[in-house]
Amino acid sequence: MRTQIAAANWKMNKTLQEGTQLLNDILSSDIDPSTTQKVIFAVPFPYLTVSNDVIKGRANIHIAAQNCHHKISGAYTGEVSVDMLDSIDIKYCIIGHSERRELFDESNQVIAEKLNLCLGKGLTPIFCCGEALSIREAGTQNDYVENQLNESLFHLNKVEIQKIVIAYEPIWAIGTGKTATSEQAQEMHAHLRNVLAKQYGSDIANNISILYGGSVKGSNAVELFGQPDVDGGLVGGASLIPSEFVQIIKALK
Ligand code: 13P
After folding, report:
1. For residue 99, which atom of ligand 1 is closest to its CA?
2. How far apart are CA 20 and CA 3, in angstroms?
3. Non-local CB neighbours of 119 within 8 Å, separated by 6+ positions
4. I need a surface site. Which of 28, 91, 162, 234 has the fewest CB within 10 A?
5. To 5 degrees, how large is the angle CA 225–CA 160–CA 5?
6. Residue nearest to atom 1 of ligand 1 (CA)
7. Mean pLDDT across 12-35
8. Pocket residues for ligand 1 (CB within 6 Å)?
9. C-alpha to C-alpha distance for 126 and 119, rounded to whole angstroms
């Protein structure tokens, strides 16, 4: 069974006190992720160390960074390197979120460099892909997302690709309350798995977790995660509300 993952992306929300409270509220509920499940909290950079302490000793629960820089080190004021994340024991990092692509001009090539650095340090990248509304309306979303994988992932070898988690996040569904239907999610996830199978073989493709992101809520998670190729979710808004995120965790297969 592929690992099923509920990943929270807090984005630029919560103070340290509010974030710690949120983590504690979720951890003190009756969640108990099994060995084939993972719960990941992508928190703002300043809270990584404290959050790692809060989850210490909890099986299958991890803290992630939301981004890293694509250079190893140097004169990049305000940026955070993969080495820095590694040095504070962070094992996961979101890479190529659509907000970073759109607002900070991240290209598929820059994203590929970030992936390489993460893999080099043993961090698991959560690689995000997904199309804008105009692409969905033109009906070219499958080719568009395939190209994102092609340009950012397909230089990886068969061992490396299995260390990646993929998150399909259609931009038109992010923060809009407009969730992709479970059929739309399944259709794209199956396409992505086919694309991975063509490149790496179906055994490898079947091992890679592909998460859905975009207005996942407690009320739609069971339906979305119930799709055969949907291996959990990357959750923004609903991950900031303890009862919602607990419900989402419980919806994992
Ligand atoms: P929402 O769940 O708020 O739509 O955000 C999704 C997302 O961007 C997670 O990375």
Report:
1. 8
2. 26
3. 125, 156, 160, 163, 164
4. 28
5. 20
6. 236
7. 97
8. 9, 97, 169, 174-175, 213-216, 234-238
9. 11
**Cβ neighbours, 10 Å, residue 18:** 12
> What does the alpha-carbon distance between residue 120 and residue 138 come to, in Å, rounded to a whole number?
38
Q: Tell me, what CATH number does 91's domain have?
A: 3.20.20.70
Specify whether 106 is catalytic. no
Specify the pLDDT at position 174: 86
Question: What count of other Cβ atoms lies within 10 Å of the Cβ of residue 34?
Answer: 11
CA of 237 to the centre of ligand 1 (A): 6
- The pLDDT tens digits of the residues spanning 58-101 come to 999 999 999 999 999 999 999 999 999 999 999 999 999 999 99
Which range of residues forms the domain containing residue 66? 4-250
Quick: pLDDT tens for 197-234. 999 999 999 999 999 999 999 999 999 999 999 999 99
Count of domains forming the chain: 1
With the most atoms of ligand 1 within 8 angstroms of its CB, the residue from 66, 67, 100, 216 to mutate is 216
Instruction: Enumerate residues 6+ apart whose C-beta is below 8 A from 200.
Output: 158, 161
Q: Is 151 a catalytic residue?
A: no
Query: pTM score > 0.70 for this model?
Result: yes
